[in-house]
Amino acid sequence: MLTPAMAGKLNHQLQEEYYSSYLYLSMAAHVENLNLKGFAHWMRVQSDEERGHAMKFYEHLISNGAKVTLEAIQQPPAEFGSPEELFKKVLAHEQHITRNIHELYALALKENDYRTQVFLHWFITEQQEEEEVAAEILARIAAVENRMSSLLWIDKELKKRAGG
Ligand code: OFO
Questions:
Q1: Mutate to test the pocket of ligand 1, among 22, 42, 50, 104 (most ligand atoms within 8 A of CB)
Q2: Which atom of ligand 1 has the smallest separation from the CA of 130?
Q3: % of residues, the chain, pLDDT over 70
Q4: Could you tell me if the CB of 16 is within 6 A of ligand 1?
Q5: Which residue has the CA at smallest separation from atom 1 of ligand 1?
């Protein structure tokens, strides 16, 4: 049996996972407009996965006799800037979700809620992976952008060549 405090927090995380799905779909739409189809595909897959995460919270609540109460999902931003800025936002969002999951786990420990502890193990591992993936993509994008700015700097230098 979940305590009312735990059920409330799990219901809220269910909403956070749906918001994550909505956020990644908005990010997909942003990169569709930049014609970055691979980025858009990645964001769509991520958006689908987040709905799966939300449903895990739904199932955990139901199978422990608690009531699911759906909260409103807020509007996500529509603009995310360059690919590098976009992935900085992905990483920051995943770090936010990790903090939520860790707070839930701390509450489950405090309440001796063993079932919720076991349930959250999957999310703790998942968040570690998601942060690692986002950080790796961000590093790759930053490397490409650094190469581009070095190339542009060389190009500017070459323009200075005097004739004769
Ligand atoms: Fe982005 O992962 Fe859900 O929890």
A1: 50
A2: 1
A3: 100
A4: no
A5: 94
Spacing of C-alpha 91 from chain mean position: 6
Contact 48, 99 (CB under 8 A): no
Q: Which atom of ligand 1 is nearest to the CA of 123?
A: 4
- Ligand 1 centroid to 32 CA: how many Å? 22
What percent of the chain has a predicted confidence (pLDDT) above 90? 88
Tens-digit pLDDT profile for residues 126-157: 999 999 999 999 999 999 988 888 888 998 99
Tell me the C-alpha distance between 91 and 96, whole Å: 9
Q: 125: which 2 tokens?
A: 């591992």
pLDDT at position 164:
77
Contact partners, residue 76, CB within 8 Å, separation at least 6: 19, 22, 23, 25, 26
d(CA 57, CA 71): 13
Task: Return the C-alpha torsion angle 146, 147, 149, 155, nearest 10.
Answer: 160
How much is the pTM? 0.91
